[in-house]
């Protein structure tokens, strides 16, 4: 899809898409990969906690636009593609922490997997906890095990997908439009979870470019 993004851009839960444009695709990919690697290397090489916090909170000060221009068109199974999805997920959460927390909590109640433990959220998960979790996952890309951070993000998306699906079933009779919206969001979160899981596998095989 093609959108013109201007700060402050408001994203709904289904905005896990790439952008289209007329630039040279090869140049776009080179810039995406170079900047993604530079960002991760800078974060991992510095001992200054203030630098790390500025990177985590970058979109709070600058919006999602510049990151979108750099990484949104990268392959979902690449370093810039993974960074884009996690930054975007953080933006979506911070725009509606209460709604996201509700869907997350519902997902943990209906999903019979270990995803809640993998994601690492506090229970019960309220707006403050869900916001903190988003920051923890992004921070984990720059500190600690990169693959684990990707796994946590994937588990987070699977839980949100389950919560959206459950709420869609509840809303189907009384609010069919809402049910359709939630079903679409569930599908998007499922796809994103699959992409992040693939990135984690690539990382562990030294193949995440």
Tell me what you see in this structure.
The structure is a single chain. The chain is mainly α and 209 residues long. It is 71% helix and 0% strand. It contains 10 helices and no strands. The protein has helices spanning 25-45, 49-56, 58-62, 65-71, 79-95, 97-110, 115-119, 127-142, 146-171, 176-204. Residues 1-22 have low confidence and may be disordered.
Total number of helices = 10
Low-confidence runs (pLDDT<50, min 5 residues)?
1-22
**Beta-strand content:** under 5%
Judging from the principal axes of the Cα atoms, what is the shape?
globular
| C-alpha termini separation | 25 Å
List keywords for this structure.
globular; 209 residues; 10 helices; mainly alpha; 0% strand; disordered N terminus
Any chance you could write out the topology, listing elements then pairs?
Elements: H1 25-45, H2 49-56, H3 58-62, H4 65-71, H5 79-95, H6 97-110, H7 115-119, H8 127-142, H9 146-171, H10 176-204
Helix pairs in contact: 4-5, 5-6, 5-8, 6-8, 6-9, 8-9, 9-10
């Amino acid at each position: 899809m093609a959108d013109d993004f201007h700060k402050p851009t408001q994203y709904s839960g289904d905005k896990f898409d790439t952008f289209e444009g007329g630039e040279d695709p090869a140049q776009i990919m080179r810039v995406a990969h170079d900047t993604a690697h530079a960002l991760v290397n800078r974060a991992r090489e510095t001992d200054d906690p203030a630098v790390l916090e500025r990177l985590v909170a970058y979109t709070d000060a600058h919006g999602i636009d510049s990151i979108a221009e750099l990484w949104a068109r990268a392959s979902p199974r690449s370093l810039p593609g993974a960074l884009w999805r996690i930054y975007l997920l953080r933006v979506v959460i911070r725009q509606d922490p209460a709604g996201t927390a509700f869907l997350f909590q519902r997902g943990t109640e209906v999903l019979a997997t270990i995803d809640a433990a993998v994601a690492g959220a506090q229970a019960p998960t309220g707006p403050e906890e869900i916001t903190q979790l988003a920051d923890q996952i992004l921070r984990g890309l720059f500190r600690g095990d990169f693959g684990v951070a990707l796994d946590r993000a994937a588990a987070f998306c699977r839980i949100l997908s389950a919560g959206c699906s459950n709420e869609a079933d509840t809303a189907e009779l009384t609010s069919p439009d809402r049910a359709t919206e939630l079903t679409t969001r569930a599908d998007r979160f499922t796809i994103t979870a699959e992409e992040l899981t693939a990135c984690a596998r690539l990382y562990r095989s030294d193949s995440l470019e």
